[in-house]
Amino acid sequence: MVTQSRDLAEVPPLPAVRLTDVASGVVARVAEIAGHCDDSLRLKALGLCSGRIVQIAAAGDPMIVRVVGARVGVSARLAETVTVVPQPNTASR
User: For residue 64, is pLDDT > 50?
Assistant: First the structure.
């Protein structure tokens, strides 16, 4: 039987935020993409889709996001339609 130590207790998930509210260096999981169909299709073509892990390379407008091994520029207008959940203990990756 395997038991879990108290140090490895499950950490409660962080709240979802807009992609524009995430600082440089933070790793996050895409939770949802809202907005117009054309905008969401454009983001999906860039690799930003629900469940995808991304890292903010540079905040700003445009912001630079690392996704699927590539760096992608995303305008602030489009980034505001993306909801992400920051991943704990990953800001220094």
Answer: yes
pTM for the full model? Answer: 0.77
Rounded CA gap, 48 and 28, in Å?
11
Strands 27-33 and 70-74: unpaired
Burial 40-60 (b: 16+ CB within 10 A, else e): bebbeebbbeeebebbbeebe
Q: What is the pLDDT of residue 6?
A: 52
- Burial (CB count within 10 angstroms: exposed 0-12, middle 13-18, buried 19+), residue 10: exposed
**Is 72 inside a domain boundary?**
yes
- Determine the structural domain holding residue 48 and report its residue range: 14-86
pLDDT band at 13; cut points 50, 70, 90: low
Task: Give me the number of domains the chain comprises.
Answer: 1
CATH number, position 80: 2.30.30.90
pLDDT at residue 86, as a whole number: 95
